[in-house]
Amino acid sequence: MKLPNSDAETTHVEVAALLFDIDGTLVDSTPAVERTWRAWAARRGLDAEAILAVCHGRRSEDTIADFLPVAERPNAVAELEGLEFEDVADVVALPATKDLLAGLPSDRWAAVTSGSRRLMRKRLAAAGLPVPDVLVGADDVTVGKPAPEGYLAAAAALGVDPAECLVVEDAPAGIAAGQAAGARVLAVATSHDASVLTQADMLVTDLRDVALIMMERGLRISLRTAV
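^ thats the sequence. predicted structure below, dont judge the formating
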């Protein structure tokens, strides 16, 4: 994959593996996410805008815990996932994701998501993207992002040190999770303004600004960095 011509700075990073978020990083599911949260909030008489302000990059159960008492949460989580599972018609792959993933061996990448494995498999399929051998979902961790548990689990499953990984994220909670795991973090400004992603180690507009070269023991990544 070639980087576009630009006056922006090119950064080179060598890593053992890539750990991707899914929503907002590999697939554009933002319209579906917002529709389902709005529908869910309307059923329960809750402020959808307040929910949307805090839900991105977090597990549904963690967001719901901010708005509902303990006894109501399990049914509420199931209700929301039911809405999400039926709403994938306009979920699409983000730019360059198909080519980028096609060039990665299965033991060199994983996905770590705040959604359930069931839902993420459906969204990846809807977007025409492969499901990785290592997929760590909300149902695989006890504490979601911004805690590092998911990224630590993915690195362990690949048999690599988290410090040798590059996490690719689109949301502040995910950036914090990757850094807490000890990985370097690349942010993509696909769902959030770049101004709220500056805590990441590197920032690109989207994955069109990323090129890969396979090495004997890992990956060499070239980034047309935005900052």
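The chain has a mean pLDDT of 92.
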